[in-house]
Amino acid sequence: MACRDCLTRIPYATFIATVLCFIGIGVFCGTVYRGATLANLILLDVFHVQVEWVGIVRLMLIILGGIMAALALIILVVGCLATGSTRHSVYRAWKARVGGRLSCAIFLGLSYILFYVWTGILVCMTIVTLVFTLFWGMCVDNQRRLDRPCIDFVQFDWLFPNGTKVEDLQVCGREELQLFCKDYVESAEVSFILSSVAAFVVSLSIVHYLMCLSSNYAYIRDQEKISDLQEMQYLHESIMK
Q1: Does pTM surpass 0.85?
Q2: Can you tell me where the transmembrane regions are (predicted)?
Q3: How many whole angstroms separate alpha carbon 171 and alpha carbon 195?
Q4: Which long-range contacts (CB under 8 A, 24 or more apart) does 183-186 make?
Q5: Measured distance CA(197)–CA(190) in Å, rounded
Q6: Which of 77, 99, 86, 95 shows the shortest CA–CA distance to 209?
Q7: Contact at 8 Å (CB) between 139 and 187?
Q8: Cβ within 8 Å of residue 220, ≥6 positions away
């Protein structure tokens, strides 16, 4: 009976969303760190351009992942408090029910905002992935056509910082092509593909959280009605006696 009672206290939907969120955040932080590092090395070693904002964006995305992980744990706790017999014992008092509904509403709003944030990150990661897929396609085309000793990025000068030299936009030589294609672009493309998938998983987990928090809010509100009915029944029985 004790084990069965514990199982009824577990918010399975919120727990599944938390597992999805942690998997997505773990993969996202690891792949974004590696992908951004490789992108920075491409700019520095191949195109001889130093860009400081790449490191700043990398740090901000990792911090955002940490904030999302902390929020996921808090939402899991809120879900545990609003599930099964725990809800009946915790939200028995009027102030506790108001606090529970308020906390659900706050986290519902935060989750709604974070959903759009992570959707924006997913779009950005998809664009970056397409850019690196284009670069990898140019590498494959260069390997097939022996009459092209260089990969020319002059037509993509808008992707590079202002002041980049025209001669730096041409990747020539066997060593430089090996460095650009095999060492950097191939690994970076895989990293950004995984980061895009991870961002999608995190967005999906936030959708789960939105549904769970909405249902928890309704459960706590219904608990208030049940408590009022129990009080009315108790009063009625007292009067009858």
Answers
A1: no
A2: 12-33, 53-84, 105-138, 192-211
A3: 27
A4: 184/38, 184/41, 184/42, 184/45, 184/46, 185/42, 185/132, 185/135, 185/136, 185/139, 186/136, 186/139
A5: 11
A6: 77
A7: no
A8: 82, 87, 91, 97, 100, 101, 104
Stretch 110-127: mean pLDDT, rounded?
94
Radius of gyration of the chain (CA): 27
Which of 25 and 89 is assigned the larger pLDDT? 25
Q: Which amino acid is at 216?
A: N
Q: At 173, list the tokens.
A: 């030589």
3-state secondary structure of 133: helix
Q: What DSSP element (H or E) covers 188?
A: helix 186-240
